[in-house]
From TrEMBL:
Keyword Hydrolase: yes
Record text on subunit structure and interactions: Homodimer.
Domain of life of the native organism: Bacteria
Name this polypeptide is given: Iron-sulfur cluster carrier protein
Residues annotated to bind ATP: G130, K131, G132, G133, V134, G135, K136, S137
Length: 376
């Protein structure tokens, strides 16, 4: 058996061929990345959309061959990443067959027709922010678990590829299994969850360019066995770029929750987030004001460190619902670090009640959308 090296992976990609055309994966694209975690080989192949459809039928055989023929491999997972321009054929073995990504590759601009929902998933919603550092992932985790406490069947997808925090915040340390070519999400705190952080080492930097991020998000949507869900909550990367557009293109988003802090600079970015989803014809379910105020744990004195009420005013200005205020408390940070969302760890705390109220409000809107979808 071959060692886990780029040459060994490329050899498998050449050996597995389409029986009709004789083409292999490296005739149709290039090896853009390969990582190994706990013996599982994760491979990204860059190609264009048309050639991706020709590679897709080969993926199951590639994964099985990598597992069988590469020494110490206990499993394999292959994702496809897209470029606008066709990918050039791989260079011959020994000739440096790793071609740099096209930095100018971007999906076509403007709103695109929404893709299909993942199988057996009722609704998909995004939790987004115009900038980082506003507590978006903490809000997404507690919202998802809170929706589960509301009686909904919930999945949580961590699409923040460069900064995946879901495994730590949910206390999920296991690696997902691959069954019949589909990743099995992990279960915890009443919901199912999947993150790119479950597939790579926690300390490994995800040095991926735009097309690879877009391909990974698409595959986490389509190649994960989510099971029967009422709602899939997607924790988006901060900003208004490729990842957001990819999600809107890949699936029919039922809505977006925008997270902001009260200060003006954060609200400017929240405004851009609202505008982005409106341009993509995605309903904005509302704005959440995170870090709204600080309560001293000793005397309960309330201090508005970053101002207060800015998100409510911005919601009124943009004509979208205001979903509530989340306090800034050390317990929220501690619960995330300890792998137990505060809606579970301290449901009667001020933060636990605030997140439960948020989940109740959003859950009511989602139930109405589900009833409308099902024709009730």
């Amino acid at each position: 058996m071959a060692q886990i090296t780029q040459a060994a992976i490329e050899r498998v990609l050449r050996d597995v061929r389409d029986p009709r055309s004789g083409a292999c994966a490296l005739d149709l694209g290039t090896l853009d990345a390969a990582t190994v975690r706990d013996g599982v080989v994760h491979v990204a192949i860059a190609t264009d959309r048309d050639r991706a459809e020709r590679i897709r039928p080969l993926i199951a055989e590639i994964e099985a061959t990598l597992t069988r023929e590469v020494e110490s491999a206990t499993g394999a997972s292959v994702i496809l990443t897209s470029h606008r321009a066709p990918a050039a054929p791989a260079a011959p073995q020994g000739g440096g067959g790793h071609r740099p990504l096209n930095l100018g590759a971007r999906p076509p601009g403007g709103a695109q027709p929404a893709g299909p929902l993942p199988p057996n998933v009722g609704l998909v919603i995004a939790v987004a922010s115009g900038k980082g550092g506003v507590g978006k992932s903490t809000t997404a985790v507690n919202l998802a678990v809170g929706l589960g406490l509301e009686g909904l069947r919930v999945g949580l997808l961590d699409a923040d590829v460069h900064g995946p925090s879901l495994p730590r915040m949910m206390g999920m340390n296991s690696q997902p299994e691959v069954r019949d070519g589909r990743l099995q999400p992990l279960h915890g705190h009443g919901i199912t969850a999947m993150s790119i952080g479950m597939l790579v080492e926690e300390t490994k930097a995800m040095i991926w360019r735009g097309p690879m991020v877009m391909g990974a998000i698409g595959q986490l949507l389509s190649d994960v066995d989510w099971g029967e869900l009422d709602v899939l909550v997607v924790d988006m990367p901060p900003g208004t770029g490729d990842a957001q557009l990819t999600l809107a293109q890949k699936t029919a988003l039922a809505g977006a929750v925008i997270v902001s802090t009260p200060q003006d600079i954060a609200l400017l970015d929240a405004r851009r987030g609202v505008a982005m989803f409106e341009k993509m014809r995605v309903p904005v379910l509302g704005i959440v004001e995170n870090m709204s105020y600080f309560c001293c744990p000793n005397c309960n004195h309330r201090t508005e460190l970053f101002g207060h009420g800015g998100a409510r005013a911005e919601a009124e200005k943009t004509g979208v619902p205001f979903l509530g205020e989340i306090p800034l408390l050390a317990d929220i940070r501690a619960s995330g670090d300890n792998g137990a969302p505060i809606v579970i760890a301290a449901p009667d705390s001020a933060a636990g009640k605030a997140y439960r109220a948020l989940a109740h409000t959003v859950g009511g809107a989602l139930r109405r959308l589900l009833e409308k979808k099902r024709g009730k």
